[in-house]
Amino acid sequence: MTEGRREEVRRGIHIRILRESSGALLPSRATPGSAGLDLRAAIPAPIPIAPGKRHLVGTGIALDIRDPGIVGVVASRSGLSLKHGVRVAQGVGVIDSDYHGEIGVILANDGDQTYTVEPGERIAQLLFLSVLPVDLIPVADFGESTARGAGGFGHTGSS
């Protein structure tokens, strides 16, 4: 993709953002090639998270996505998870297109030491993905099955 085409794609979608608190920092990319925008903790004081515990950390921002064909996704930062065992608790967070409240990140500490979230710290990353609208059609059975059928959870072997 050429540089001009890349800029054209980036200009294609506009999402309004609101600072819910004065200390909120807008999400930003760490590098030009970063897929996600870093979300930062908008907290007045450090928050300790003990091993095995979770805490909801505010970002101080809200989004106006509006397009039901777009979803905001909150994902863990790999370095925070690897170095400290701190991750987005539910795997990924979903920001629906019609949600206008503050984005909160539920952080879980899987490590063996208390981790302290500092004000302004990068705590997660924000991605925007397309949503494929699907209509579910109830049926009595699928008729002809695939070769795999209902096999799952390692049925083809462990490696």
UniProtKB/TrEMBL annotation:
The record's EC number reads 3.6.1.23
Q: Name one GO biological process term.
A: dUMP biosynthetic process
Q: Name one GO molecular function term.
A: magnesium ion binding
Q: Which Pfam families match?
A: dUTPase
Binding residues for substrate, per the UniProt record? 77-79, 90, 94-96
Instruction: State what this protein does.
Output: This enzyme is involved in nucleotide metabolism: it produces dUMP, the immediate precursor of thymidine nucleotides and it decreases the intracellular concentration of dUTP so that uracil cannot be incorporated into DNA.
- What's the family? Belongs to the dUTPase family.
Q: Which PANTHER family match?
A: DEOXYURIDINE 5'-TRIPHOSPHATE NUCLEOTIDOHYDROLASE
Protein name, per record: Deoxyuridine 5'-triphosphate nucleotidohydrolase
Tell me the organism. Answer: Leptospirillum ferrodiazotrophum
The lineage is: Bacteria, Pseudomonadati, Nitrospirota, Nitrospiria, Nitrospirales
Gene (name only): dut
